[in-house]
Amino acid sequence: MGNVYDIFKERGFVEQVTDEALLRELLDRPVSCYIGFDPTAKSLHVGSLLPIMSLAHMQREGHRPIAVVGGGTALVGDPSGKDEARPVMTREEIDANAEGIKGQLSRFLDFTGGKALMVNNADWLSPLNYIEFLRDIGRHFSVNRMLAAESYRQRLESGLSFLEFNYMLLQAYDFWYLSKHYDCILQMGGNDQWGNILAGVDLTRRLEGKVIHGLTFPLITTADGRKMGKTHRGAVWLDPELTSPYEYYQYWINTDDRDTKRFLCYFTFLPINEVEDLLQSGDQGVQRAKEVLAYETTKICHGHDEADRARRAAGRLFGEKAGGDLEGVPTYSISREELGDGIEAYILFQNTALCKTRSQARRLISQGGAYVNGERITSFERKIGADLIRNNSILLRAGKKKYLRVQVQEA
Fold first, then answer.
1. Has domain 238-318 been given CATH number 1.10.240.10?
2. Among 100, 117, 258, 263, which is least packed, fewest CB within 10 Å?
3. Would you say the pTM of this structure is higher than 0.85?
């Protein structure tokens, strides 16, 4: 077993840590650690991947990860990094989302034989008596110190509800509870969670006289300043029903050259020396590195078979074999009746979400970046109709790598 802290440092995972020397020493032996996951959607997205990968690294080095599904805290809502309060969800909605998240985490972590644990904080937060909670827990918190936390300060102007104000106390209680009942000594999370993590460290010291630790990861943006995991089609989900394995593969292969090394370190298990070797051959090396990144990330999330299928589909498309076997390529279904005498290209590109707006679609066509069945579209008014159907499909392309199959269904 190596020291996982060295792995985190080498791969760029560490933003802040409570006591670097002491934590590294503790990680020389097996420990339990935890990260919380917010069940406000039925799927996690790639913005959650760095925390998930950190738990996977911990397990690979002999530690026990605890994934906490925040069924209880989701009833309150975390104000960290949010401009406005989240809509209040029902317990039934939260529980349904939590079940989906459990399945997704199981692809990254081995939960057999107690090697990792998955718990729902609703199990210990829901039975809490409010008066006793205020008396036993609330008295340890300074309102002045809470208001100084970045997660609260940035919300004061837009409005912070009393419900959300309680969130820090509940997350701190989680850390204390897990420390007491599961011997958990480390909480990890995004850097926006630093204040909440420190609150748990402080509460546990006050209640138990015990030293526990916190570690945060950098908040990731892409090289062009965009939030990680956003595309023209919306969030990139880990659920294959929401983002297909092919679309997932394409998200990674379209990584900005400037992000390739960083993302290989964050989102794959490749040794650092292999990452360095991949990038030695200039532009050709970067392209090869992006192919490896796309394959490895898809394999970790969706398995070998889906990664192989996505790579084959990408190879066929990039080999300009339009109209061939397009299994795995994003599909937009349309009836032959809807297709009618044909739909103008710029309208179809917007309808299929290859472009956000019709003006964007017009701009794409005028710049020579729109294709149908491998042929460049030269006119806005070019109609795409039944004469272009090949094997019940019409293949559209926006730019170099964004493909979509229009599947034409008979009445």
1. yes
2. 258
3. no
